[in-house]
Amino acid sequence: MSIIVELTVGLLALLILTKFVGKASLSESTPFDFIAMIVVGDFVSDAVYDHETHIFKVLFTIALWGLLILLIDWITLKYHRSRGFFESHPEVVITNGVIDRQRLKKSKVDMNHLLMLLRDRDVFSIREVEYAILEPNGKVSVIKKPQLEPATREDMKVPYTSVSLPVTVISDGVILQKGLKQIHKTEGWLRRKLKERHITDLAQVMVAEWREEDGLFVQTIHPESPGDQSRGSYRAQRSNAFEKRTDIEKGPGH
């Protein structure tokens, strides 16, 4: 029974710690973050398997470690020169298509590892690379040679429209009031739109999202067959265009 309590308390303590250290430490794995994860994990394992280690001592240790992490984060934000010590600097390992062997050796990266990092960025030949930067988290950022970069609409002089961020209004059969508020719509409006699509049971809706360019999109748990989807897609596009014109005329909340 004590193991269950210690594991539960340890898990909650780690969750609280990850909330305090911020998203940046979770998304990146710098050498300092790697050490922090190992040490904190060791604290919890001691509480579970070492009967002489009391859970409150572990909680105190985790709290103190969390404060040290926050202190170091504050120092790196306040004093720019300290970042090189705690986080290290990015290294340019390929310049103008030429591999910098000295910087690779300094970063302890061999050619096989570099090629693997490039493949992870969808680059399968050194000849494609103009610049490559080895980041502090161990990943590589790549700038391809100009002639190999994909053409954009601006390059091809193709007209384009503005793009808006889609807002999810239904997720796993649950209406998201925050999303409706964001797009200035009501639950009644959403239910009417679903009824127009012959959907009466919210539990059948896997996801529904709204986007200014093309209106409401709905994906049910049991979608139509591919042939029906193509026909339904055409009907949905016409319906979405009509919805958008109608909603603009009616104004918010209708």
How would you sum up this structure, described in words?
- The protein has about 250 residues and is of the alpha+beta class.
- The chain has three domains: about 1-85, no CATH class; about 90-150, 2-Layer Sandwich (CRO Repressor), CATH 3.30.240.20; about 165-225 and about 235-250, CRO Repressor (2-Layer Sandwich).
- Helices cover about 50% and strands about 15% of the residues.
- It is built from ten helices and eight strands.
- The protein has a four-stranded antiparallel beta sheet. Strands 6-5-7-8 form a four-stranded antiparallel beta sheet.
- A hairpin with a 3-residue loop joins strand 7 (about 205-210) and strand 8.
- Helix 1 (about 1-20) packs parallel to helix 4 and helix 3 runs antiparallel to helix 4.
- The protein is flat.
- The termini are far apart.
- The model is unreliable at about 225-240 (pLDDT under 50).
